[in-house]
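Quick one: structure for this chain?
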Amino acid sequence: MTAVRRLPPRLRAGLLLSVVVLLATLVGPEVWPHDPLDPDYGATYAGPSLQHPLGTDGLGRDVLARTLAGGRVSLVIAVGAALATLLLGGAAGLLASDAGRRVDAVLVRLFDALLAFPGFLLVLLVVAGLGGGTLQTLGALAVAGAPTYFRLVRGFARSLRSADHVAAARALGATRWRTTVHHVTPLLAGPVLVQLATTMVTFLLVEASLSYLGVGVSLPTPTWGNVLQDARALLTRQPWAAVGPGVALATATLSLQLLADGLRDAFDPQQG
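Got it. Here's what it folds into:
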């Protein structure tokens, strides 16, 4: 408990909200009795009730069940794409920082070319070209976000290689690989974790936007974006259908943003 109390307030709040969101999306679909894909044509557009707290959609499917199941898909894409982006861009950044001028120049030009495209437009083009789907959306997000991690890791790694402790390790005979693994990479944890949480926020909103536009995860698989899209047509008559996915998306976004701010406070208190 003492260690938890020492965490920055925003980090504690972000962790608490994140646990709530994860429990709801991971455990909720298993315990809630309604199937998010099972239609009930005798209960279409039903209002909120004890059986259906958020009502049903045009096919009689329980909106709460679709919100819980949709959150699982949305979070898997956001988290998975952020980790894939870190792996792709971060590995390239480390390589560019210590592989010589030619390799560095080639990688810089490659990732600068990706940066020339607006991020959302690039994701939209890739997803539209590959066809909507979970893996396609995840891959498109990973490619679009990689330049951010490339620039971040390359910049920090280049500055860290001139630090005194790294120079001392080199003087004692440490190889470049050992220097990178033991003396450079651990010091990247702070800025990388902050950026990772921020990337998850962005990817969560982008995935919801793609699904809302109908080019993301294919129906009938629910995500927060396409559940909101289903509720859009009757928003004035049945606003409760948008409450569940809307509040869930806002809560998940807030929790990840608090995590990013809290991690920034923890690693650099002067900026808090």
